[in-house]
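User: Design a sequence. Structure:
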């Protein structure tokens, strides 16, 4: 029902900022939780931020205070503003959509292709 395409990744210096976008197509965008997940080399994929369908948000402790997730249901788009980036933020970032109230990776139904974020020290 949902197709997702991420954009906005790139190479930045520590302390810098990036803004990721995820454009969605398909039915019922507003009924999904929209999340940003990331996967570093050799690591499990993990959640970074979730935007629930009621507009509330949940952040991983590792990014809280630095990242902001937002969504525009009229534009079928979700964003991740990343500030004060650290080398440990380096990962492939994925946009995902799901129907359950959870941060579990395996509960999300639709995934984008991912966009690389690299933070240099």
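Assistant: Done.
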């Amino acid at each position: 029902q949902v197709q997702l395409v991420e954009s906005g990744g790139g190479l930045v210096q520590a302390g810098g900022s990036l803004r990721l976008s995820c454009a969605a197509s398909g039915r019922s965008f507003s009924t999904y939780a929209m999340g940003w997940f990331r996967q570093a080399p050799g690591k499990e994929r993990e959640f970074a931020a979730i935007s629930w369908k009621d507009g509330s948000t949940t952040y991983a402790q590792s990014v809280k205070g630095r990242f902001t997730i937002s969504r525009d249901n009229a534009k079928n788009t979700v964003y991740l503003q990343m500030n004060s980036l650290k080398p440990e933020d380096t990962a492939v970032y994925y946009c995902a959509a799901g129907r359950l109230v959870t941060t579990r990776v395996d509960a999300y139904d639709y995934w984008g292709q991912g966009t690389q974020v690299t933070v240099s020290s």
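The mean pLDDT is 95. The radius of gyration is 13 Å.
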